[in-house]
Specification:
Blueprint (H helix, E strand, L loop, with lengths): L23 H17 L4 H7 L5 H11 L16 H14 L1 H21 L2 H13 L4 E4 L15 E5 L2 E12 L6 E8 L2 E8 L5 E2 L14 E12 L11 H35 L1 E2 L2 E2 L4 H29 L5 H26 L10 H13 L4 H13 L6
Parallel strand pairs: 1-4
Antiparallel strand pairs: 2-3, 3-7, 4-5, 6-7, 8-9
Helix pairs in contact: 1-4, 4-5, 4-7, 5-6, 5-7, 7-8, 7-9, 7-10, 8-9, 9-10, 9-11
Length: about 400
């Protein structure tokens, strides 16, 4: 008889053995970003969140640039040219620290830099991308408006030609990085359809007041963009994008990062719940020894690692050039929704301590309320999948 192969030990941190799907470079990227987040973000993020600020954001951006995390999956122009899976692993580790840090990276790389990289002129790429990749320049992405969130086709921001120039007017809302950005990619109606513009934020008529009184993404800079007859040269327009397909493709790229990032928030809450359950005693023993607590932990682990496996699968499809927008919607819908449930369940295990900033659970839970909405609400992703499944359009 042939002897049965010796099974590897069960790893509570990786119960499905997903790490075996990663190569040495993948693991190195993940571990490098994790070490940075643990050292640079975790010691202070609770205070940042409580105060509703992200101090030293420019220094953080430069450090993230040194890590190669900005525009990470883009090639050339100082970008790291990492795989989609490696970018996803970085998003997971950043959001395990805080959603606001992952949002900083996502908006910089997957929205502003991606738009310039994919749709910009060579001059625009050379002017902006190397400095954005290094973190010297922070960018933002202006699509959502005060009255037009899920329906960007109805945007009111308008750019018209005036001689050889463009004149841009309108407002954008809920813009991550807006108040600290040196460049904004702004989408506007024109006579030719929706176009994207590369807007230096020091232009006369441009303002970006910060939005205050947030109870989610508090360790993040969120702003309104106000354009009042901002005059731009003819070459400010992104030549490769006409219509909604341009900004929507940027959003799809950013949503992919969220598929991974949401699992980072979920993992942080799950780990906090496991640690707490092992040490918190009630009725004479650790609460982790009670059946109901173990049932909660088992369900959380199943959904967490299913979500990571889903993210990994979508990453491999993206690397192969086979990832469809509907599949990204599938991932965001599932992973953010399950991450929120994991956070809520973790809160019940921690009891009253679950609402304290001494633990990460409530911070992640409130952050995920924003993640659930931005880059497409639950309802929009349900309708994307509904249309794909039935062939019938329920949007209008």
């Amino acid at each position: 008889m042939t002897a049965s192969p010796k099974l590897p030990p069960f790893d509570p941190a990786d119960p499905l053995g997903i790490d075996e799907l990663l190569d040495a470079e993948d693991l190195a990227v993940r571990d490098t970003v994790r070490r940075w987040a643990v050292r640079r973000v975790l010691p202070d993020v609770a205070d940042w969140y409580e105060k509703g600020e992200l101090p030293g954001i420019r220094e953080l951006a430069r450090e993230l640039g040194e890590l190669g995390a900005l525009g990470m999956s883009l090639s050339g122009y100082g970008c790291a040219g990492a795989s989609a899976v490696q970018y996803g692993l970085a998003c997971l580790e950043l959001e395990a620290a805080d959603s606001g840090i992952r949002s900083l990276v996502s908006v910089q790389g997957s929205l502003a830099m991606y738009a310039i990289h994919r749709f910009g002129s060579e001059e625009q790429k050379q002017t902006w991308l190397p400095r954005m990749a290094s973190g010297e320049v922070i960018g933002c992405f202006g699509l959502t408006e005060p009255d037009h969130g899920s329906d960007p086709a109805s945007m009111r921001t308008y750019a018209g030609r005036d001689g050889g120039d463009w004149v841009l007017s309108g407002r954008k809302m809920w813009i991550t990085n807006g108040s600290v950005a040196s460049v904004a990619v702004v989408w506007a109606q024109t006579e030719e359809g929706i176009r994207g513009f590369v807007v230096p934020t020091d232009r006369p008529g441009f303002a970006a007041p910060e939005i205050r009184h947030k109870w989610s993404l508090r360790a993040s800079v969120t702003s309104e963009l106000i354009m009042d007859d901002v005059r731009l040269p003819a070459d400010a327009v992104l030549p490769g994008a006409v219509g909604l397909k341009g900004p929507l493709s940027c959003l799809s790229h950013a949503r992919y990062g969220i598929v991974w990032g949401a699992m980072g928030a979920a993992r942080a809450c799950f780990e906090a719940a496991v640690d707490y359950a092992r040490t918190r005693e009630q009725f004479g023993k650790p609460i982790g020894g009670f059946q109901l607590t173990q049932a909660k932990l088992a369900d959380m682990a199943v959904e967490l690692h299913k979500g990571i496996l889903l993210a990994h699968h979508l990453g491999r499809r993206m690397d192969a050039g086979r990832l469809r927008p509907e599949q990204v919607s599938f991932g965001k819908l599932n992973n953010v929704r399950e991450a929120m449930e994991i956070c809520r369940t973790a809160r019940t295990i921690l009891g009253a301590n679950g609402i304290s900033l001494e633990y990460p659970v409530m911070r992640h839970a409130t952050n995920l309320e924003s993640v659930l909405t931005y880059e497409g609400t639950v309802e929009m992703h349900q309708l994307v999948l509904g249309k794909a499944l039935t062939g019938l359009d329920a949007f209008r």
